[in-house]
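Example (one chain per record):
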Amino acid sequence: MPASRKTAVAHLRAADPVMRELIDSISDVGDRRRGRPTDLYGALVRSIVGQQLSTKAARAIYGRMTDRFGGRPPTPQEVLADDPEDLRTAAGLSHAKVGYLRSLAEHVLDGSLELDRLEQLPDDDVIAALVAVKGLGAWSAHMFLMFTLERPDVLAVGDLGVRRAVMLRYGLPELPTPSELERIAEPWRPYRTLACLYLWRSLDATPV
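Predicted structure:
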């Protein structure tokens, strides 16, 4: 285990007895992140394509879409130049997702989403930039921060898996609200991303 991960685990174990019990029951979540990609636009395309789909279905649809563009994600210019209906039927996308991909392409091309600056922005500014794109909500932005930019202190307050794991582990009568989850997770700072990984692992539900 890398020294940075050991430090984070030690902090979580010391900060919260419930988290300590969870960590000890799982041992280690490993590093499920794919490594920071150089193509941030491609990562967002994949995020849109995979929304509300099983991993298997998302992989199949993404594969059909990249096949249409020579085995790679389409550029913003290619998305906008393609016929929306042809793209939808070729890849098996919904009408809504084609619209989302076009919105993403438009935001990149008009400069309102500056991908080259995202890595330098604070988490809240990254979220604000992403949710301005149609189809990218707070959940998608949190996943992008966690698994693409590899930010260490992200709490996925809208993720049902995290909320369900917290409900079960903390003996709550119902799913915590975002504000309740924020309160429970306060001791986990500055390693809330790792805490989420443990919570997902407890349900075998890591969304990657």
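Caption: The longest helix spans residues 95-109.
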